[in-house]
Structures are given as C-alpha cells and as structure tokens.
Prior knowledge:
Oligomer: single chain
CATH superfamily: MFS general substrate transporter like domains
Shape: globular
Distance between the termini: 19 Å
Amino acid sequence: MAEPTLTPLTAAQRRAVAAVWLGWGFDVFDALLINFVAANAIPTLLGLVIGSAEARAATAQWTGLLTAFLLIGWAIGGLIFGHLADRIGRRRALILTIAVYAIGTGASAVSPNIAVLIACRIIASLGIGGEFATGSTLVAETVPESKRLISGAFLQTASPFGLMLAGITTWLIAGLWMPDRPELSWRFVLAAGLVPIFIVLLLRTQSHEPPERPTSTLPLPAALARLFSRELRPATFSAIVMSALGLFTWWSCNAFLPTIGAGLGARAASAAGLTGSAAVSMAESWKASITLWFNAGGVIGSLLTVPAARHFGRRGMFALYYAVGALSLLVTFGIDWQPATTLHLAFLVGLAVFGLFGAFAYYLPELFPPDVRGIGAGFSYNIGRLGAAIGPFAVGAYTARQVDTTAGAMHALTLLVILPLLAILATPFIVETRHRTPARFHR
C-alpha cells in the first residue's frame, strides 16, 4: 500500500499546525533556558563566586538535578494533560499546558533561593510535559492523511527552533547586554519565558477542535488499564521503549551542551589572550554556537524522518537513526579534536539524536485509538522521561567530580553510545505502523 498523495491544507488546518508548532517551540525554549544560565544562576542562589572551581562543580551537579526534576514533572504532566485532552478536548488542554509552563518559567526569574527555583521548574515541567502529546494529537486528527507524516515531522522542527532561541536569547542578554552583571542577567533570561502567553491568545482565537474527535468518558485508572490491555500492550511497549531510549540520550546530551560550549569557548578565549568581559562574551558566543550546530542538524534530521519512514518503514527508520546516533556520539565526543571542530561536529549529533524526534509526532498517534490517543501518546512518551531523568543526573554527578568539567562532560556523553545500540536491538520487536492511520485505526 503506497503512501497517500499530497493534498493542500485548509486555512484552519494551517492555523492549527502553526499554533501547535509555536507551542512546542516555546515549550522547549522554556524547558531549556535554565541550562543556558545555570553557570550564573546556581552560584548566585547558593552564595558562591561565579566562575570559581566550587561554582563550576556545583553548577554541573545542580544542572543534572534540575534536569532530573524537570523530566519527572514532565512525565507527570504528560499523563495529566494527556488524559485531560481526551476528556475536555485537545485545544483546551493545549491552552492550559502553555499557560502553565510559561507562568512557571517566568516565576523562576524571581527565585530567592534554589528551593524556590526547583518549585517553579516543577510547575513549568507539568505544562511542558503535556504540550507535545496534546499538540501532536491535535495535528494528527486535524490534517488529512496525506500530510500527517510531513506535518508531524514539521512539528519537531519547532524543538530546534526553541533551543536555538534559548541560546540566542541568553547570548543577547548575558553576552551582549549584561556581560558585566552575570549575577543578574540570568533573571532577565528566565523572565523571557513568559513570552508563550501570547500563543495562548492565538490558540483561543485561531484554532478549533478536530471535527470528529470522540470524547473519552474513561476515568484515569481505566484509561491507563486499557493501554496495557492485550489489544494495546504491544503499541504501548513500542512507544515507551523507543521514546525512553531516545529521550535518555537526547536529554543527557542537551543538558550539557551549553557546559561543553562554554568550556570550549573559554579555552579559545584563553588561547587568544582574552580576559574579563571579552572572555565572558566569547564563552557565551560558543555556548550559543554549539547549540546552533546541534539544532541545525536537528531540523534537517527531523524532516529526513519522512522519506526514511516511507522507504524503510517505521522500524527501519528508527534503526537507521539510532545507528547514526551511536556513531555521531563516538566521533564528536570520543576524539580529542580542536575546539572548533568539536563545535561543528555537534551538527552530526543533532542530525540523528535530535532529528529522531521528528518521528514521534506521527508515530505515537498512529499507535493508539482515538478515545485514548491523548493519554496513550502522553503517557508512553513521557513515562520514558522518568528513566531519562537518570541520564542528566548521572552525567552531572560524574562531571562535577572531574577537574576539567568540559572534558568530563564529553567523556560522559561518549559512554552514552550504549543507549542507541540497545535501541537498535529493540527495533525488530516494535509495532510497525507504516500503513496505519489515526483516522482508521480502531474505529
């Protein structure tokens, strides 16, 4: 059975895709702002001297902890809002998720101590966790079958956009506007997390519910039980395994790319004889640059999942991306390149490790029937984050014990190659959805 021929989207469908794309992009933007300002925020809140050896060790450890808290809250949010999407509608649930994560991130800008910062991050993570599954389900049920693959992959390009925007925002505020006020600049960066509130207004006026979406009447325990019924157990297993291994790898890389970029930039500044604000500006610039290369690879990789999924099927596509991901981790972080070379090789890591996620926006909705599609995608995708939370915590703990935190983070990321290799072994056992569409499956 061939893939359906392409048909144009209506104006309403384009608005729905655009609104979800923006919601997902700013979801990632809000989620990752803290990683870019951690080197300034964490020492400030702990009363440490920014840039000292003690501050660098604390930053590595707390970056891992904050990311772990984020992922746990993300998983809980995916479960809660995925269920809400099946009960109250995709659009209403999506509006709630964006409002929650924007308010949580914006509030973290005025944190007086590390405990309040953690509380704000947990609030934000609940909304962040619900946005992806709710939004991807809304798009899968809104666009025609012929555009589901490309629309789903297109949604994932919002994630590199959000990450690039986080890097650029940090560079503009901390690197250009306030390079001499690192103890204050991070608060303005986090305050930018309130911007997604404007997307809520767009969603309220420019989007509608899918016309044929059935409303679930299942309570949460019954909905969860159905996901593990004999009928849906293989689909749930497939979604959890592929998502968990991909998330573990991506979050472990992404949480520490800013640390690696800043460290490489500091080396380059030292080699050039730069000191003071000039050295700070270069470190911030390299932090943004490594993110840009990683995200450029992610955008291209996300779009390439469409021809890969059509040609090789979903199983073959996952196996291909995980194989390239394993190779890219070894080449980028396992070899002692010149700093600029490592910076550019982040493109290869993004191509596979980040690009892989272009597939989840269409693969997960294909797995589940309409009445549990929201919670199915939300639960299975986000429950993997509970396992993935171990990754940043372990990388952070390992890095904090190293004299050279940049080299330590790179060595830790090299060891992650075991995860994509495990995923390759699991691909023959996942459900193939190549000829299955959300509109017809389990109707």
